[in-house]
Amino acid sequence: MSTLLEQLRQASLVDCDTLDISVARSLGPFQDCTSNQAIAYLELIKPGHEDVIRQSAKLAKELHRSYPELAIPELAVEIAMVQLGLEILPHIRGCMHIQTNPFYAYDSDATITAAQRIVALFQQLGSNVGKDRICIKIPSTWEGLQACGVLSEKGFNTLATTLFTIEQAVVAAKMGCTYIAPYVNELAVHFEPGFVDQFPGGDLCVQAQRLFRKHGYTTKVLPASLVSIESCMSLSGVDHITIAPGILQQLNKTVESKCASAFEGEVPEIDTPGIMDEKQFRILLTRRDSGRGEIKQVKAINVFADFQTKLEDLVQGYL
């Protein structure tokens, strides 16, 4: 019998949800590598990353003239995330995913500028890094999704993150996003001991993927925020799946017969809206499940904003 990780790789493209290069080396090969402000902070505070922070602070001061719209600590954070991403890129087949500053979640223009800047930093600090190897993660607010549309037209890979409803999925597909990342569990499961999401979003992953294929959308479904090997295996057959190091290790050590997947079972279809303008999107998001997804998204953006602040405080000590 094969390990669960091997089984999952036969059915879906597996990504690593970490900026720890040792994971990419030891448990790969992975297709993509995903990250966010929380992952970046928890990686940078590990022993041995002082040089990355110090170099990022130095480069931020040197490059600030090219990016005057940013405070130096914010630029240093982006540079640090890019540097960690550059280390991992040779060990994956596809894209390195970097998330824009969550404080831009309701600002399309700032998000577009940030995405272009992140790609430019990859190309400036790396060698021969094409923008096809980079994916920009953007919160699935109305403003964020509009930014995804502009960036997609310009040839950038985008991922609509903090996504909890079919409305967000539909708009993301219409905006030409490369991926959507439905959060199977809200972020509190990772930061509040004992917290359990009473309304996990596994069915949304199935519903969105079937909808995209039915209507010919090229957007791929990439579930995130998974908490167990069982939840991962239940999504076997999804386009992509991103998994944290601890669960990857469990999957790699577990040998079992084939597990059942939600993609092989009956999942109820969900009402899907047609053309949506901003007002319609906002009210549908508010009305879906009495606003449960909207509340989860606000909480997620807050978590990432808190970690953005922690990252800026961290690099400030090296400026």
Topology (elements, then pairings):
Elements: H1 4-11, E1 13-17, H2 21-27, E2 33-34, H3 37-44, H4 50-63, H5 72-88, E3 96-99, H6 108-125, E4 134-139, H7 142-153, E5 157-163, H8 166-174, E6 179-182, H9 188-191, H10 202-215, E7 220-221, H11 229-233, E8 240-243, H12 245-253, H13 278-287, H14 292-316
Parallel strand pairs: 1-2, 1-8, 3-4, 4-5, 5-6, 6-7
Helix pairs in contact: 3-14, 4-5, 5-6, 5-14, 6-7, 7-8, 8-10
CATH architecture: Alpha-Beta Barrel
Please compute the radius of gyration using only Cα atoms.
Answer: 19 Å
Mean pLDDT: 95
Within CATH, the superfamily carries the name Aldolase class I
Characterization of the model:
- β3, α6 and β4 (134-139) form a beta-alpha-beta unit.
- 50% of the residues lie in helices and 11% in strands.
- The chain has a five-stranded parallel beta sheet with strand order 3-4-5-6-7. It has a three-stranded parallel beta sheet with strand order 2-1-8.
- The model has no long low-confidence stretch (mean pLDDT 95).
- It has one domain: TIM Barrel, CATH 3.20.20.70.
- With 319 residues, the protein is of the alpha/beta class.
- It has 14 helices and eight strands.
- α5 crosses α14 (292-316) and α8 (166-174) packs parallel to α10 (202-215).
